[in-house]
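Hi, here's the filled form for the chain we discussed.

Project: internal
Contact: R.S.
Residues: 116
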Amino acid sequence: MTIPLEIMLRGNDRVYTETLIHPGDPSGWSDRDVAAVLKRILVTIDRVQNPGKTEEPEVSLRGLSWIVHPSGSGVVIALEIHSASAVAGPFNVSESQLDGLITRALRAATPTPVVH
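And the returned structure, exactly as it came back:
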């Protein structure tokens, strides 16, 4: 699937438009697929913030705020981090299905504390 992405950097009035590619239809995606898309969004934000950077950063799915919001022809994912915000989509999948996938993907990415 081709995913339109709009990025807004803090302190910058410009909207950057990018395109992501992820295989398959969103209605058939797993938690891993959604985690991969979220990481791709974050890597793309980093690339827009640091255009001369050549290496891809390691990405952790922590410290971000997100919502799934209805849009004209589906739903979009809106992400916010301390330095930028981004809107990806639309995705042809139900709001509740995508919301559940993101919730599970983020929960799986959060390390469980070890108590000794």
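Let me know if anything looks off before we file it.
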